[in-house]
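Long-time lurker. I teach an intro course on protein structure, and each term I like to show students one example going from raw sequence to a predicted 3D structure in token notation. This year I'd like something fresh instead of my usual example. Would anyone be willing to generate the tokens for the chain below so I can use it in lecture? Attribution to the forum is fine with me.
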Amino acid sequence: MKCPKCGSEIPEGKMYCEKCGTEIHIVKEYDAGLEQQISDNMSSIREEIRRQIEEEEKLKHTAERKKHLRLMAAAAAAAAAGVCILVFFLYYNFLRPTQARYVGRAYEAEQNGDYKKAAEFIDRALNLDEDGNVNQLLLKKAAYLEEAGEYEDAEVTVREVIADKNLTGDELIDAYGSLIQIYADQKRFDEISQFLSESPKEVQSKYSDYLCAEPTFSEKDGSYQKSFHLILGDDSGGTIFYTLDGTDPTIDSSVYSEPILLSSGEYTVCAVVVNKYGVRSKTARHTYQIGNGRLATPIVDTDSGTYSGVAMIKVEDPSSGKVYYTTDGSEPTEESNVYTGPIEMPSGNSTYIFITIDEFGNKSDTVERNYTLTPSAQVSKEDGPSYIITALMNLGQVIDADGTVTGGNACYSYEYEETQTVSGYGSFYIYNEVLIDSAGNSAVTGRRFAVNVSNAIVNLYTTGGELVPIS
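-- Reply from a regular --
Happy to contribute to a lecture. Here you go:
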């Protein structure tokens, strides 16, 4: 075979010209049968290829769909996981019930004035049984119940706290403070003092203003021979009310303001203290038996009867107390005349009543004496003025028996007015003083003189009938 390009001979089996390098294309002889076979074969091949392509497309589509589904499933799972995480986060941090959350709800209810609902939220917090201060929650619940007017439930709640043996001192004080507030709101002050008196000392010290102790008595129960003054005491600054007949005192009973005199007989003295909060103490009760209550009767040495001349009424000194007397028929008291020595019996008829009274108010029986004195006058009415002038001369008010005024020419003259009996002193002549000048003019000075008809003693005599020493 020759090269179509350079014409050089190409060896058999070579596919290119060794001289010029031209590629040799061998064209076989045309065979119609072979061509038909080839055509049929190519059709089968093409059909197989198409079928394979379709199958591959189907497989590819199925794979893509499965992949897409797997991606969607993975995305859905991831989303679901995210939602779960979010829900858990929200629940744990915002929706999960906790004591703090219920306490917050209770506070909101408190701000809205719904104290009963606030107490219910505290109950829910307590039911969670979380680690925390249960006693503080109970006291908060009690406070809400108190505000809601549920006093009985509030008290039960507080007493549950007080019953805890593991309370610290401060916790116990807080618990008792809550209980006091509950009782005070109901004005159950007497009961406050009662349960505080049984509380620990640190509680009593903290709330001492509410603790009202019994009043103290200066004397113990028993029998006494003499009267005495009973002194009641109180350290709380409250008011003491008392009775003497054994009945329980009330705020309408006698108010203690000074020592109580127990003079005679039997006394059951009952006293209570009511402090500034209205808290009432327990009633203190003491019984006393005081002698027979009667002092010795005064011994009057001067018996009743008729006397003449000068007579003195004498009474012996008592062993205790003082002797008092009257002259108007009334029973003597501590406001009456005190016997200090012999009394001159007055002229005419008189009545004297005597009694002994001691410092405690104990009294004796009274003694009455009736006298009639008919004086045998030792001084005449006519001699009275001379006794007056003599007394004035001794004082330097006149210079002679005529009654001449010292340092002047006028003189005094005395005119008889009447005879008077002065209780305890006897009978007296009463004279008016008159001043007469050198021209004979006269004027009453206003002074009156009393001359004792028995002993001639001279005194001034007042308009009220009293004797006053001249000076």
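Some talking points for your students: The chain is about 35% helix and 25% strand. Confidence is low (pLDDT under 50) at residues 86-94.
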